[in-house]
Amino acid sequence: MRADKATNLDDFKQAARRYLPRMIFDYIEGAAEDELGLSRNRAAFQSIELVPRYLRDVSSVDQSASLLGRTHALPVGIAPTGMAGITRRDADLLLAEAAHRAGTPFILSGASNSSIEKIAQIAPSAWYQIYVPKREDIRRDQIRRIGDAGLETLVFTVDIPIYSKRERDIRSGWVRPYKPALRSRIEALRHPLWLLNFFRNGIPTLENWLPYCPPGSGPMDVTGFFAEQAFAVQTWDLLRDMRDQFKGKLVLKGILSAEDAAMAVEAGVDGIIVSNHGGRQFDKAPAALTVLPEVCDAVAGRIPVMIDSGITRGSDVVAALCLGASFAFVGRATLYAVASHGQAGVERVLEILKQEIYLAMSSIGCTKLEQLDRSYLR
Predict the structure, then answer these.
(1) Which residues, listed in sequence order, are joined to residue 274 by a DSSP beta bridge?
(2) Could you tell me which of 19, 26, 33, 100 has the fewest CB atoms within 10 Å of its CB?
(3) Catalytic residues
(4) Which CATH number does the domain housing residue 72 bear?
């Protein structure tokens, strides 16, 4: 299947399933423990009904979205996804370039395989998501590098106080010290194109962490160092310290309660991303969509509220905006697309979402994003 022949986001998921070894596909698709959080995210979006309003002029629909001082061509961007380079060489760079061309934000993961500096050259409007290390000097240097590279937005992910239990990865051996189970190695032989690229390029390095490792450190050494450093004890005092150090826009990712949202506003953050980490961190956490309205009520328009976790359709984005979100992000879909089709796949994902957002807005009789509200929901 060519990228331009994909009709929906699931097409890329199925293409990635064929291209990737099962242990790598499961690393992307899997979630914590019983994976109820994963299914809960989808169920929340599936339960939403949008009410059509007819006899309205929808000949022109404007999807442009203002966010943190910039105007974007569509109200959905690319969420951070760690170790993207294991799916395809330079996957982070391809994701960033596709987002830049589409006029929408790309968030570089704190566990990315491409450096802050490389991403800034390709997508100057990219954001960086930090996994706060235990060593304060590393944290301060990474924040300095973000500013020096010209990136304006720092995303502090707060929903990983500890490592989660992802049972698919445990069974396949895709956990440190990364010794894939025999059945996983045998199954990988069924994916020769991925294997060829893997043997040609080797294990990708966590480039943003390499400067803090001893000279001559290899990819596995850097990964081990990252695992030792992640994660610092996360507190409101740490947040306030980061707020003082970083002079750009500071976004808090992983908020799932109205109380934390209100405290975040008081702490001086510039935006919130409501997220349960795609169901990958805490299986009993609520779906992001179900807590979005109360978070928006608590924030009361003082800062933008964004959302990720569970979005697979443009109509999902419209539903989230009706509930009060200012913007949305997708992660798994674009990672599947870059794995199976490279940059062309990511561009097609964003194109499909734009088409589906247009269809949803036209169907409910709404021509501007700022007009979306709960009156369109049933």
Answers:
(1) 255, 307
(2) 33
(3) 277
(4) 3.20.20.70
